[in-house]
Amino acid sequence: MRVLSLALLLSSLAVCGCCGNLSAAPKPPLAAIHSGGDALARAPYMGWTTWNLQDVHLPQYNNKHWLNATNVRAQADLMHRLLQPHGYDYVNIDSGWAGPYDMYGRPLPDLKKFPGGIAALARDFHKRGQKIGIYWIPGVQRSVYENNPPIYGTKYHVRDIVAQPPVAGNAFGDWHMKIDFHKPGAQEFIDSITRLFASWGIDYLKLDGVGPGSDSEVDSRDDVRAYSEGLRKTGRPIWLEVSWRLDHQHAAFWQKYAQGRRINDDIDSLTPKITGWSQIMKRFQEAPLWSEDAGPGKGWNDFDSLPIGNGSMDGLTESERRLVMTFWAINCAPLYNGDDLSKLDSFGLKLLTNDEVIALDQAAHPAVPMVGGAHQVWRADNGDGSYTVALLNLGAEPATVAADWSFLGLASVQPVRDLWSYTDLGPQRNKFQAMLPPHSARLIRVGRPSAVSQRTPLAISGLKASSRYGGVQLSWNASASASRYIVRRSRSAHSGFQVLNARVTQTGYLDRPAADSAPYYYQIAAANGAGASAMSQPVGAAPAREEHDRVISIDFTGDAIAMDQDEVAGVVPAMHWNTAPCRYGGLPLVDSAGYSSGAWVQYDAGGTFATPIPDTAGGNRMMRGYLETYGHDTTKITVSLLPPLLAKYGYDVYVYCDGGNIAATRTGKFTIGDQSVEVTDNAGSFYSGAYAPASASGANYVKFSVAKGDTFTLLATPVSSTDENLRAPINGIQIVPHAR
């Protein structure tokens, strides 16, 4: 995106009265942790973006209302059905998803557009093998600077990290202010944002308005480095794309810190058509300069979206649309469409789903130019003794375009295959030439793979499926020549298999389907640039349905160190406790497997204590700290947007309330809805490795039952005390689903 909508983030910022000095940075919970590493960018990504429809000058799309969860979900459904079987799996939400900022100056979704937040979409998309991306820009928005919130997990505030005197933080102007990354707290601020994004389950982050480039002298390299480092620290494989029209002088930097980079202006024409031929021609100005810079370990040159699915909307002829797909694929550019997928025409669908052309893109052997000018020839070394060649007529008149075998270092007679028509053209002597209409292309494979090169991978072996928390875990043995694996799923072992994910690069896959107890069946094929193996024999397993498979646990730590991810606490032993460090604020919540739940906690207390409540009898603990009340104040905690299964079947709420009491006997009242329970904490009582309910001596927790609904509010009110300190502490909360 180049022209930024002011609707992106213009909103008020809620500021908290967070504890001012944190002794150690709490470790926020992460979303699902997968091994990414080099596999993340082994090949360019494929998917769909919202931006073309947001930017096309048609009233049904180009308005402030079109970008919303309903419309994005509808396009994702269509992508799942039409394009995902061919490898398209990213659903990227561009500018306009964000609303307010949280108490730490971090962006939150606009809940009017996305009622369940980004996490709800991520959860649904992941269940069917899709990935989700969002958009962001460098710098600190001016309103955040003026409100000066604390930086999560530090003693610093936002004004402490902004460059002085303030200057523009990105190519969109000075409404975002530049961060000085030499200042303490600056990297921590970015880390807090990337952790938040990871907790939602995002898989892709587009960082826009980056320079040098973007029609701007702004230098965003420190920002890119910081976001790259922040994403790495989350432990979640998240693709970082930097944009737009980046300066080639810094190609090595972009290669080091991002998986992909936009090297051109936007492809959008800012008219009632998505693009036009003049916008396409701009790709040819920059592509030769960057052609040697793409590949595995280097990242990918992004030419922008593929507006080729609907001739009436795209602004291109059929020949031009085929040329676009040809040029993107032979250069191994990311393949992401931006059309209204409900209006794809038959020609556009054929272009987007030609598996031989897609395989060329995903084989990760980018092309280099052989002949320039109006009649271009590009060639890609397939790495197996053969070449793929694109012949392009960029001129306004028909022209003969030829590729000479001597340029390829090949013998005089070579077999040729036309990738667009799936046709073997037979042996060709010395060269291949074709008369091309204006703005058209041919795409051919020349030569045959060498004898030692395997045409297609061998079938996989050792496929296993096992029940896991919330899903089915697949594992299999590697096929030696495979570059990716295709996963198919069905509810029957005999028929009905559909592609779930066509771009798996590991020898394992966690499928998180709808939560039910019926088995799913799976097949795997190994694939590379030459094709795919036969499908494996199906194996099946049912998602694990433990009673407590959706537990959400919150630890009110004060300024204490957060619980380690492998620490277990609570009446219902659960890992992955959410860390709430301040006396009031808001926090997105993960579940006990570390996955984003989509839920949110908002809380307000008189104070917070970092005193951990140790186990006097063993090595357990009752959380790390507690929220506190003073005088007759009432602590209020609201949890909202709970997962649908909890909202439907109900849940228990465990409230832990041990203040490590020494001096006095104190009574507090805890209330949810029309349920109220008083708990007395006797002087000299200590947690001793056991949780005692409110009805027992030495009580340290209260249990409430909520029949249904996605929101509840907990109130904690002091009642009495044998000293002057009225208290009703809350160490933590667990939300445990009812049996289904």
UniProtKB/TrEMBL annotation:
Alphabetically list the UniProt keywords.
Answer: Disulfide bond, Glycosidase, Hydrolase, Signal
The alphabetized list of GO BP terms reads: carbohydrate metabolic process
Q: Which domain of life does the UniProt lineage start with?
A: Bacteria
Q: Where do the Alpha galactosidase C-terminal domain residues begin and end?
A: 373-446
The record's similarity note reads: Belongs to the glycosyl hydrolase 27 family.
Q: Indicate yes or no for the key word Disulfide bond.
A: yes
Recorded protein name is: Alpha-galactosidase
What does the record give as the reaction this protein catalyses? Answer: Hydrolysis of terminal, non-reducing alpha-D-galactose residues in alpha-D-galactosides, including galactose oligosaccharides, galactomannans and galactolipids
A molecular function (GO) term:
alpha-galactosidase activity
Which E.C. number(s) belong to this protein?
A: 3.2.1.22
Annotated transmembrane regions: none
